[in-house]
Write a structure and sequence with these properties.
The protein is built from 15 helices and 14 strands. Helix content is about 35%, strand content about 20%. The longest helix is centred in the C-terminal third of the chain and has 25 residues. A hairpin with a 4-residue loop joins strand 2 and strand 3. An eight-stranded mixed β-sheet has the order 5-4-3-2-1-6-8-7, with helices on both faces. Strands 11-10-9-12-14-13 form a six-stranded mixed β-sheet, with helices on both faces. It has about 425 residues and is an alpha/beta fold. The chain is globular. Helix 1 crosses helix 3 and helix 11 crosses helix 13.
């Protein structure tokens, strides 16, 4: 039996569910956004961080008006974090018990080869995500925790997994395979999967829009530069190469991750330094990259130190840029024709010195940056290359939450009417 509507809504026509809650559950944090998919507008967003610590913090922003609200004090676990977020949404009249909520979309980092598209979460799907934990030990467990908690809060609601790896499943085998024994690789699912897929999908499509072209007519190199960083080569809307591999460790220099490294370094550290596999894992994932090179993983702080003459910071920056240039050149070769290079994510969107340095010296590739355009700060997609440049250079703010919401809503409400804002 359907519950009667509240008195103040008794004369209103039934409303089709049109909201999507997006959850991104990390090991000690939960990010969330609630979106109205009729016009793709944000109704609220928030972050719960330092879960399990005495210094836990929740910041909730009602995007329809009002100042951000903050809670501090211990939030014991992800269950408590999501319940606290639900309380904040309820205070805005946007409770999770609302009949207007159509689905909850979850960011899931690793989907292996099985999940190539957004997927409604069933017991079997959840078991498969769990089976992939060994290849995403830092990410999938937290994603699973968020899914289970959300299922407990709204067991009647479709829960949808949107996978970071899905966009990269179009890579040809020549790009996806490592050159190791095939039987061993297949037995242990060892291949290149790639990550940040929702960002690469969104940014490559938005870059095509910026150029006034259809995605299938554009070849784009996307540089997702945040604390985690990855590059992709996108040909006609399909990923043909990406920098991250079996795990998010491979590829570019990152905030705390080494990126590309001779695999024999791990053997050397075990034999000569006596380090265990777990210690080497921590070294390469948490004590390397920019923080390993100079002690800082905040690009703003690194640039400040460079301006003050800090040679260690300057070397870290040069190593970071050198790796970026290598990937731009390699992906230009993979694509054959490049229409645009797009910078995105925290560093890519906000660090003009990184963009300038990454493109400097690549004029023979048809790339150039206009200093004035590059210096402009904006939250909108924009070109920063001069008119004469053969290849467009763009800054395209990513929106992974909107991408997850779009994919989730398209799956659960394929016939719904949408109005792009």
């Amino acid at each position: 039996m359907t519950n009667p509507a509240p008195d103040h809504e008794s004369t209103a026509a039934p409303v089709e569910p049109h909201r999507v809650l997006v959850l991104n559950s990390g090991s000690s944090s939960v990010k969330y956004q609630l979106l109205d998919m009729r016009d793709r507008s944000r109704l609220a967003s928030g972050l719960v961080e330092r879960i399990g610590e005495e210094t836990s913090r929740l910041v909730h922003t009602p995007l329809t008006g009002g100042e951000p609200r903050e809670r501090t004090g211990r939030i014991a676990d992800h269950d408590a974090a999501l319940k606290a977020a639900a309380e904040e949404l309820t205070a805005d009249g946007l409770g999770l018990d609302s009949p207007e909520l159509a689905a909850i979309g979850h960011r899931v980092v690793h989907g292996g080869l099985r999940f190539t598209a957004p997927t409604v979460i069933t017991d079997e799907v959840l078991k498969e995500i769990e089976r992939l934990v060994p290849v995403a030990p830092l990410h999938n467990p937290a994603n699973i925790t968020g899914i289970r908690t959300a299922q407990a809060l709204r067991p009647d609601l479709p829960q949808v997994a949107v996978f970071d790896t899905a966009f990269h499943t179009t890579m040809p085998e020549a790009a996806a395979r490592y050159a190791i024994d095939v039987e061993t690789a297949d037995a242990h699912r060892i291949r290149r999967y790639g990550f940040h897929g929702t960002s690469h999908a969104y940014v490559s499509r938005k870059t095509a829009e910026l150029l006034g072209k259809a995605p299938e007519d554009v070849n784009v190199i996307v540089l997702h530069l945040g604390n985690g960083a990855s590059a992709s080569a996108v040909a006609g809307g399909r990923c043909v190469e990406t920098s991250m591999g079996l795990t998010p460790l491979e590829g570019l220099v990152m905030g705390t991750r080494s990126g590309d490294i001779d695999p024999a370094v791990t053997f050397h550290l075990k034999r000569v330094a006596g380090m265990s596999a777990d210690e080497i894992d921590v070294l390469l994932n948490k004590r390397s990259g920019l923080v390993g090179l100079c002690g800082d993983n905040d690009m703003r702080e690194i640039r400040r130190r460079i301006d003050e003459g800090d040679e260690q910071a300057a070397l870290a920056f040069d190593i970071y840029i050198h790796r970026l240039k290598k990937y731009i050149g390699a992906y230009a070769a993979v694509l054959g024709r490049v229409d645009a290079v797009a910078f995105t994510a925290g560093v890519g969107e906000n660090s003009a010195p990184v963009r300038e340095a990454a493109i400097a010296g690549l004029e023979e590739f048809g790339l150039a940056v206009d200093a004035g355009l590059n210096a402009v700060r904006s939250g909108e997609p924009r070109l920063i290359s001069p008119e004469y440049a053969r290849v467009a250079v763009a800054v395209v703010p990513t929106d992974e939450e909107l991408e997850i919401a779009d994919q989730t809503f398209a799956l659960v409400a394929p016939d719904a009417v949408r109005v792009d804002n």
